[in-house]
Amino acid sequence: MRTYRAVEVSEPGKLRIVERPIPEPGAGQVRIRVEACGICHTDAATVLGVYPGLSLPRVPGHEVVGRIDALGGGVARWTIGQRVGVGLIAGEDGVCVPCRRGDTVNCQNPVISGVGADGGYAEVMIAEARAIAFIPDALSPAEAAPLLCAGVTTYNALRNAGLRGGDLVAVQGIGGLGHLGVQFARHMGFHTVAMGRGADKEKLARELGAHVYIDTVAGDAVAALQRMGGAQAILATGTSGEAMGALVPGLAARGKLIVVGVPQDAIRFNAFPLVFGGRSVHGSLTGTPIDCEDTLRFSVLQNIRPMIETAPLEQAADAYARMMQGKARFRMVLATATGASQKSTR
Ligand SMILES: NC(=O)c1ccc[n+]([C@@H]2O[C@H](COP(=O)([O-])OP(=O)(O)OC[C@H]3O[C@@H](n4cnc5c(N)ncnc54)[C@H](OP(=O)(O)O)[C@@H]3O)[C@@H](O)[C@H]2O)c1
Ligand SMILES: [Zn+2]
Ligand SMILES: [Zn+2]
């Protein structure tokens, strides 16, 4: 029997490498030979066993890039050998109310990579053909992978926020999501502010394109934003609700706090800046496969690449721990296939 290696959560908190028989794709599915998979902070909900609807064992990973090596019945658009990607929302049901309104990312009964289906911390993955995205050759697998969650999440949140060129846009939290958010904001033509805890990320944030860096530990971030006229948008990518809520007064009139980070603690804020100034707070969830393709195309067009550190599949537990400790600069990527971490030529 042919087998493949996968890293599964066998019990909460425990990632271990296992050998499994290679599965055949079912109707409407493809089998992917995984080349690279990013390690997103959301994977913690799988590793800790707390994602709603999760049952263990489960293979995490939803920033997956690889090549199709088998097609299930009825799969027409894709061919064997094509390089494709899979993100978090890995198949909508097509029948719930949001789906029927065309809002498939908010499907009420989706397939979620690494939660309801095994994800990309593996050599092989089965994916729903309707949920895969085409990967351009200009990107190496390890560079493309983070764009399929961290990338599309920040790209979509910014491009759908009704902003205009030159607007003051702040990105709070310079991690996997945030370091891409800074690049997208800069390349979409916004006056880009990066906000991180401490001075050590300032140099990198400026290299990523931030016009301004605010060290949220050293000073009053709200006052700094207000001195610049207030932000038309703050893209909140951090993992602290307390830190997010405190930023609302840093918005300009009509400004938006766009929540993409999913902290465990509550986001609290005062009603006054909301009412007096018409400010708003809203959330944004990743994107659809075609949004992923838009993200990848924009990244190629504007020379945007994630800043990554790679690790082999068997070191997934260490790489995950490094991400959780906030040490990754800025995305850990499992480079599962030989050569997956090569840098693309620009
Ligand atoms: N909306 C979506 O569709 C979506 C998609 C992917 C991920 N997420 C969520 O987005 C969040 C970030 O994911 P990631 O992969 O970017 O994580 P990550 O690489 O681990 O980065 C975590 C970020 O949180 C910030 N942070 C940590 N503790 C903080 C605190 N006490 N106060 C303020 N900031 C703090 C860090 O900011 P510093 O720069 O200050 O250190 C860092 O930028 C997670 O909650 C994840 O679940 C949501
Ligand atoms: Zn993610
Ligand atoms: Zn649905």
Descriptive overview:
It is globular and about 65 Å long. It has helices spanning 43-47, 97-100, 141-144, 150-159, 176-187, 202-207, 221-227, 241-245, 271-275, 289-301, 316-324; strands at 3-11, 14-21, 29-39, 64-71, 83-86, 124-128, 132-134, 168-172, 191-196, 212-215, 231-236, 251-259, 280-283, 308-311, 331-335. The mean pLDDT is 97. The protein has eleven helices and 15 strands. Strands 3, 4, 5, 6, 7, 14 and 15 form a seven-stranded mixed β-sheet that branches. The chain has a six-stranded parallel β-sheet with strand order 10-9-8-11-12-13, sandwiched between helices. 23% of the residues lie in helices and 26% in strands. α4 crosses α10 (289-301). It has 346 residues and is of the alpha/beta class. One zinc ion binds next to loops.
Describe the structure using short key phrases.
six-stranded parallel sheet, 346 residues, alpha/beta, binds NADP nicotinamide-adenine-dinucleotide phosphate
Tell me the β content.
25-35%
Helical coverage, percent range: 10-25%
Q: How many beta strands in the DSSP annotation? A: 15
Q: Please state the structural category.
A: alpha/beta
Averaged pLDDT: 97
Order of helices and strands: EEEHEEHEEHHEHEHEHEHEHEHEHE
Tally of contiguous helical segments: 11
Write out the distinct hetero groups bound to the structure.
Answer: NADP nicotinamide-adenine-dinucleotide phosphate, zinc ion
Over the alpha carbons, how many angstroms does the gyration radius reach?
20 Å
Shape: globular
Low-confidence stretches: none
Q: Which oligomerization state do the chains in this entry correspond to?
A: single chain
Termini distance?
42 Å
